[in-house]
Amino acid sequence: MKTIGQPFIGIFIVLGLVWGITGGCSKQKKTEAKSRKPVTQAVSHEARGEAQRCGCDDELNDIFFISRTTLPPGATPPATNIEGRVGFIAGKANTLLKTMDGGTTWRRILERKTEGPHFTRIFFMNTNEGWAVSRDMLLHTRDSGETWIPAKILPENFYYFGPCAATAVAYYQMQPPTCGASVWQTRNGGVSWAALPTHLPRNDFGAVFFFDDRQGWVAGNYGLTARTEDGGQTWQEQTLTDGGRLSQIQFVSPQTGWMRADLGHKGNLWASRDGGRSWQAQPLGIASYWNVEDMQFLDAQIGFILIHVEAKINQVMRTLDGGATWEIIGIHPVNIAALCFISATEGWVVGAGGCVFHYQL
Fold this sequence. Notes:
Blueprint: H1 10-13, E1 20-29, E2 39-47, E3 49-53, E4 60-65, E5 87-91, E6 95-99, E7 107-108, E8 121-124, E9 130-133, E10 138-141, E11 149-150, E12 164-166, E13 171-173, E14 184-186, E15 194-195, E16 205-210, E17 216-220, E18 224-228, E19 236-239, E20 245-251, E21 257-263, E22 268-272, E23 280-283, E24 291-297, E25 303-310, E26 313-319, E27 327-332, E28 336-341, E29 346-351, E30 355-360
Antiparallel strand pairs: 1-2, 2-27, 3-30, 4-5, 5-6, 6-7, 8-9, 9-10, 10-11, 12-13, 13-14, 14-15, 16-17, 17-18, 18-19, 20-21, 21-22, 22-23, 24-25, 25-26, 26-27, 28-29, 29-30
């Protein structure tokens, strides 16, 4: 295991740790005027695994595979023939893709529309019920992504769909930061909505997570965060010094969770072992000006983060000790937007130009 430090030099020596896999995500290389035939240059990913062809070249923003490690606590575990085989991708131009063979083949579920919804999130509450989220449209499925139905527009002049979260039984929706200070809940696929009992302390939170009906957390810019232990009846505020722009929260148990800031993170994640009453900075060993794009923990020990180093240089890091140390497991020469792992050794990342890469460590 290699723990990286700062300044980061692993980009240039990581070939000694991992090897390039060629194929899949590809780009067109400009040719000289005398040549009329395009020359395709394969992108080399410095990671163990293989690039997968998804059949489109749109910008891909999120990916989700159904497994017992990705579904919310309390969800019925998927059948063996589904786990790690059925997956979904969301992206630009009304892009929703599905695979039933672990990403070997993908098919488009919705018709492509150049000016269509730009889906930024996709995730499932159980094997059959899932959500696809864009700023202007929220879709729900009850048949494992074969058909998608728009959720009912929320009341009280609800403008646009922002941060969201789900437990095994309920879906939670907020407006984009500064557009509203309510958290809305639905238990019937968006047919009807109910606001949580009390407004949030502020209207500019940019992340939300609920572990169950009672325990939830929100967070936003300048290290601002708040938690509820009574289903939104009351909220306890907290400000983390040098917290940055907090943009994602995940708890793997009622006590153990993490938050990431995409900007202003000072090279850290934030970890809590007491349900969010207190938070401790966990150094990642990265430059403070790199963006932390995505985060996923499978349990209290195994976790992954996606780092944007610079244009067309993104790296994936893994921890096996709850965030105490991190190692680089892959580098990608394209802009990667999201990751989804189903175990410590298998996962996927997606990004620009229809890029899909399957990790097999």
